[in-house]
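RETRY 2/3 - previous attempt timed out on the joint model. Re-submitting the same 252-residue input unchanged.
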Amino acid sequence: MELLERFASGDLEAFEALFRQHQKEVYSWVVRIVRDSGIAEDLTVETFWRIYKSRSRFDPAGNFRAWARRIATNAALDHLRHSRRETGLPDDLPCANDADPTIRRETRDRIRGAFQELPAKYRLVATLALIEEEPYNNIAEAAGISVALVKIRVFRAVRMLRKKLNSLGLEVSAK
Amino acid sequence: MSSAENNKELKNLLKQAVAPAQDSELRRDLWPQMLRKLEEAPAPAFHVPWFDWALAAVLCAVLVFFPGSIPALLYHL
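RETRY 2/3 succeeded.
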């Protein structure tokens, strides 16, 4: 019996094999969204827990990698939803190495603050599209939405961010 | 300034403030943590359908209000 079939029928050894095959990829996807290695580890385990619980719904002929990524994205989104008010981005988050010296630390903090105030679903697509420069179709597939909706969410995120920054006294040109 | 240029400006500002994740490599095996979670997971709760509870309640009511039906019930068991 194939590995995916054994997994779908509840074989723990097959699940372990899949876990070991895909844990790095799931982690590296999640850490790009939540930007904290400890949280990303927990969410990787949570992702595989959800995968294990819904194994009977998995079609062994399907794409496990894509399925895992979608579940990981949902787990990360749930985390962003629940942690927005509590934690947000970690304080020691690195700034870009080639950070423009004319942009002061205070300005960068304001931008980060405004960014973490975005609703979770907008922050998710904005992080992946604007910061990580992930192609829209990858984001759409991972989030289970259309490419058009990804574009709309990026557009709205940019608009919200610009509005927030302008209200904080940071002049960002608006069309 | 065009909308695309505006977006580019904002994107640059954002990337100055929040750098792309540079170290996204997993440094340890998470299987032991996964195994712990699997072991700690509560066993699936024993679920009794609501209809069975309703049936049991009706039966109890019958036995309480019509005790004469007990021998008949026992006879049919």
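The first helix of chain B runs from residue 3 to 17. Closing ticket.
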